[in-house]
Amino acid sequence: MIRNLFILLMGLLMLLSGCNALSGNPADMAAKPVNNKEHLMKEPIPKNFVPSNLNVVAIGDSLTAGVGDADNNGGYVGDVSDLLQREENISSVDVSNFGVRGHKTTDLIKVLGNEKVIEKLRDADIILMTIGGNDIMKVTRNHIINLKLEPYREEQPLFEKRFKKIMKTIRTANPDAVIVYTGLYNPFKYMLPELSEIDTIVEEWNQTSNRIIMEDGNAIFVPIQDLFSNKSVGKLLYIDEFHPSETGYSLIADRVYSNLSD
């Protein structure tokens, strides 16, 4: 059984690597979030907070880039923009999307060193972000023959350090914008349920990012694990069975918008 599982996992990673060869970027992964919305340290956004012209800046990995959205609406970022546009007191929504497939926290730090990105962040009212899944995938690739918890836990404090640097850079550029970090989900839960180690690790990493988000005081952690946690998740995933489909992105957008509106 272990041998069959190894062969299946190797085949999956080869498939994802093949997709990357076409795109020029490593595969993106999202993982299971910590579903503790009741503990989020955030204040509801009053109606008079939203200006008539809203600037939204999106940063992160392939979920931000909208990989898997067959409708070509920009994934959850485009859907959130559409929902905001329906608000009576918003006349327009200007979206700047800097999401890149395969980006890890190390890549996002480099993106945030781009003055063009910083200029957009300075003017942002809302900052949408997804990041971290590819950091986990990198560890998985490096230890595919013998998956254990230790390598992930060795990487976790490094991820935490980089995540804090990302938040600090954003806040230096813009102290007032609402930062919305969408939690990670685990697509392997549907394809390879035997890999319980991944569930454990993504939960721990999400606890780390959630804690940092909570400390900010004007940032929101949006959990989406429950959306992708059962066998019906198939229709919520793209044909690669990895990224969200347009339906999956729509559900993520609804959750993000709901948290912004609360």
Layout of strands and helices, then pairs:
Elements: H1 2-23, E1 53-60, H2 62-65, H3 75-85, E2 92-99, H4 105-111, H5 115-122, E3 126-130, H6 133-142, H7 149-173, E4 178-182, H8 188-191, H9 196-216, E5 219-222, H10 246-261
Parallel strand pairs: 1-2, 1-3, 3-4, 4-5
Helix pairs in contact: 3-10, 4-7, 6-7, 7-9
Structural notes for this entry:
The chain has 262 residues and is of the alpha/beta class. Helices cover 49% and strands 11% of the residues. It has helices at 2-23, 62-65, 75-85, 105-111, 115-122, 133-142, 149-173, 188-191, 196-216, 246-261, and strands at 53-60, 92-99, 126-130, 178-182, 219-222. Strands 2-1-3-4-5 form a five-stranded parallel sheet, sandwiched between helices. Helix 4 (105-111) runs parallel beside helix 7 and helix 7 (149-173) packs parallel to helix 9 (196-216). The radius of gyration is 18 Å and the shape is globular. The model is unreliable at 1-8 and 17-42 (pLDDT under 50). Keywords: Hydrolase. It comes from Metabacillus hrfriensis.
